[in-house]
Write a structure and sequence with these properties.
With 120 residues, the protein is mostly helical. The protein is built from 3 helices and 2 strands. It has one domain (2-119). It has a two-stranded antiparallel ribbon with strand order 1-2. The two termini are 24 Å apart.
Amino acid sequence: MIITGSALAGLGAMSMLAAGITWLTAWGNSSRLECDEFDAPDYEACCPDGYCVKGTSGGDAYESTRDLSAASQVLVAIAFPMMGAGVSLAILGAGVRGGGDRKTATIKATPSGLVLEGTF
């Protein structure tokens, strides 16, 4: 369970990284929107009601930004549960594995010195 949990948490973290890269790409595309009538950097002002002229640089950047934004949201929605499940499995696996083999160590101070006792 520890290996499976670690692998699942790692895949979740990689999905989170991919979501971040996708979001940064969407942000970069949104800064390239060209507004003829408006001088605003956001795509809602450039393309009112979500309608842009397809084939123009503003329309293509709007479509690309919207698609990349949706992809980023899907990746985040997958990554968080995957990471949570992976960490949970790793914790549960560590608890199950160490259930019967208790290792204890005790240090006692006696008049003759320190004594180390325990089961290993």
